[in-house]
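Curious: why these numbers?
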Amino acid sequence: MFVLGFGVDLLETDDYKLVRLVYHTNIVFGYNGPPKIEIYSIISGVWRRVVGVEIKHCMVDVMWSQAFVNGVLHWIAYDVVPNGCEIRSLVMSFSIEDEVFGEIMLTDALAGVTPTNLSIMLFEESLVVVNYGREIDGASCEVWVMKQYGVLESWSRLYRINLVVGMEKVVGFRNNGDILFSTRRNDLVPYDPNSG
């Protein structure tokens, strides 16, 4: 299983970089150790392996999202709680300039959510996490924004949206404030969160 991230170092080298984390999996125990980390640089034109860095978090698979904010790549990740019966979701980060991994904690309302129900993206210049849920009365999603980058207490829920039949996933935000959803038929539908 692998996870990709793409970003640019505009401050130092003006170089575009692709980061790949490769996890070896097995059916019984999940991941076999930490992932291999590789970075491709447009300037050098080659992949290089990063050694001496151990990532302790698990990641969701490549079909989910990444966000590039403040020169840093972000992915949804999770840790298995020591009792082995639950997981704790968080955001794993990678600075394109320094090539250093880090983490950003999620508010309690998101940390206990299954990581495959979370998606991360950019809204204006802020980090956003979308939480998808299924209830008896239908599907919904919550849009959470980190108002101050890196500050746990700044996570705030912007919207809770009941998804009508066919609406699947938030794919982005328009300049006018509309949220763009993909549908089961692969169409894009704008949604005005203020008028519903």
About this structure: Residues 2-163 form one domain. Residues 72 and 95 are 4 Å apart (CA to CA). The chain has a mean pLDDT of 86.
